[in-house]
Amino acid sequence: MAQPSGNADVYANSWLYRIRHSLAHVMAQAVRERFPNAKLAIGLPIADGFYYDFDLPRSLTPDDLAAVEERMRAIIAEEHPFVRHELAAEEARACFHDQPYKLELIDGLAQGVGVR
After folding, report:
1. Are 23 and 69 in contact (CB under 8 A)?
2. In angstroms, rounded to a whole number, what is the distance separating the alpha carbons of residues 44 and 17?
3. CATH number for the 8-84 domain, one of 3.30.1490.190, 3.40.140.10, 3.30.980.10, 3.90.550.10?
4. Model's pTM, two decimal places?
5. What does the domain layout of the chain look like in residue ranges?
6. Is residue 25 within 8 Å of residue 84, measured between CB atoms?
7. Partners of 51 in beta bridges
8. pLDDT digits (tens, 9 = 90+) for 8-17
9. Most CB atoms closer than 10 Å: which of 29, 49, 86, 88?
10. What pLDDT does 23 receive?
């Protein structure tokens, strides 16, 4: 993962990292609403923003990007609380039972293979 200049641990514990991480979740929600069968892979904060890898039924168009951005703004305006919590592997598998890439990541983490 690319991060701004300086200590990676400092960045990972910063507000900027947390905001970008949360926005990746917001984007995933917006994309899943537009593409209900979307498969989620991984999304991370990076040096100049954040990203999320999706497996979609087709390539995104400029109209899709505008709609996702608009929906992200609406989700943020709903003022949902952002709460960090960790799940046991079995809970995470139940939560993402229909997401094969997430299940692969969960299995890797459960075996001690980190994501960074």
Report:
1. no
2. 9
3. 3.30.980.10
4. 0.81
5. 8-84, 86-116
6. no
7. 44
8. 677 778 899 9
9. 29
10. 95
Both structure tokens of 29 = 């929600």
Alpha-carbon gap, residue 95 to 100, rounded angstroms: 12
pLDDT, tens only, 55-65: 999 999 999 99
- Burial string for 57-83 (b: 16+ CB within 10 Å, else e) reads eeeeeeeeeebbeebbeebeeeeeeee
Residues whose CB falls within 8 Å of the CB of residue 50, separated by 6 or more in sequence, listed in order: 20, 21, 23, 24, 27, 43, 44
For 16-73, the DSSP string reads HHHHHHHHHHHHHHHHHHHSTTPEEEEEEEETTEEEEEEE-SS---HHHHHHHHHHHH
Is the CB of residue 23 less than 8 Å from the CB of residue 35? no
